[in-house]
Amino acid sequence: MHDNLKDSYKQIIAAVGEDGSREGLLDTPKRAAKAMEYLTKGYHETLEKITNNAVFTSDADDMVLIQDIELYSMCEHHLLPFVGRCHIAYIPNGKVLGLSKFARIVDMYARRFQIQEQLTHQIAKAVEQVTGAKGVGVIVEAKHMCMMMRGVEKQNSKMRTSVMLGNFREDPKTRNEFMQLVKN
Ligand SMILES: [Zn+2]
C-alpha cells in the first residue's frame, strides 16, 4: 500500500502544477503516504481486538458518561479533515468497559473515510455490542474543513449529530439527563 500511495502523491504534486523535484517536496510523497496510512489505520482494526480483555462484570446500573473524547476524522466526500469531540453515555447491564477503550472505539471508526452521521452511528452500535448496555447515547460535534477552507467557507459552523439506542431512545428522561450532563 505504501508505494502505491507514495506514487499517487507524486502524481498529485505534479497535477497541481508543482515541481516535485524541488528540495522541499522531494520527500513529501513518502511523508504524505505515511500520514495517510496513519489517518486510515482504522480499516485494519477490529472491535474484538481493541476491546479485548477490557469488559468487566459490574452491578452498577447508573448512567456512565465519557465526555469530550477528541475526534479526528476525514470526510469521505472531499478527503479533508473534520475535527471535534465525542460524548458517549451508556447504562450498564451487568458489564462495563474500560475507560480508555471508548477512545479506542472512537479512533477506530474515525480513522477511516467517514461522514459524521455514520461515524456517530457506528460508535453507538459498537458500545452497545461490546457492553450489552440497556441504552447508549452518542453525540458528535465537529468542524469540517470542507466547509471552512473551501465551498461556502463558513468558519464557525459546527455540525452536531446524535444517536440514541435502547432506553436513551425510548425514555425521554434518560435522554434528557444525558443532554443536560453534556451541556455542563
Ligand atoms: Zn466534505
Hey, roughly how much beta strand do the residues contain? 25-35%
- CATH C-level class of the largest domain is Alpha Beta
Fill in the CATH topology of the largest domain. Answer: GTP Cyclohydrolase I, domain 2
Main beta-sheet annotation: 5 strands, mixed
Write a short abstract of this structure.
This is GTP cyclohydrolase 1. The chain has helices at residues 2-15, 28-39, 47-51, 99-110, 116-131, 145-148, 167-170, 172-183; strands spanning 55-57, 64-75, 81-91, 95-97, 113-114, 135-144, 159-166.
How would you describe what is shown here?
It is a single chain. By secondary structure, this protein is an alpha+beta fold. It folds into 2 domains: 2-39, GTP cyclohydrolase I, N-terminal domain (GTP Cyclohydrolase I, Chain A, domain 1); 49-183, GTP cyclohydrolase I, C-terminal domain/NADPH-dependent 7-cyano-7-deazaguanine reductase, N-terminal domain (GTP Cyclohydrolase I, domain 2), CATH 3.30.1130. It has 8 helices and 7 strands; from the N terminus they run H-H-H-E-E-E-E-H-E-H-E-H-E-H-H. The protein has helices at 2-15, 28-39, 47-51, 99-110, 116-131, 145-148, 167-170, 172-183, and strands at residues 55-57, 64-75, 81-91, 95-97, 113-114, 135-144, 159-166. The strands form 2 sheets. A 5-stranded mixed beta sheet has the order 5-2-3-6-7, sandwiched between helices. Strands 1-4 form a two-stranded antiparallel ribbon. Helix 1 (2-15) packs across helix 2 and helix 4 runs antiparallel to helix 5. Zinc ion is lined by residues 75, 77-78, 80, 144, 146.
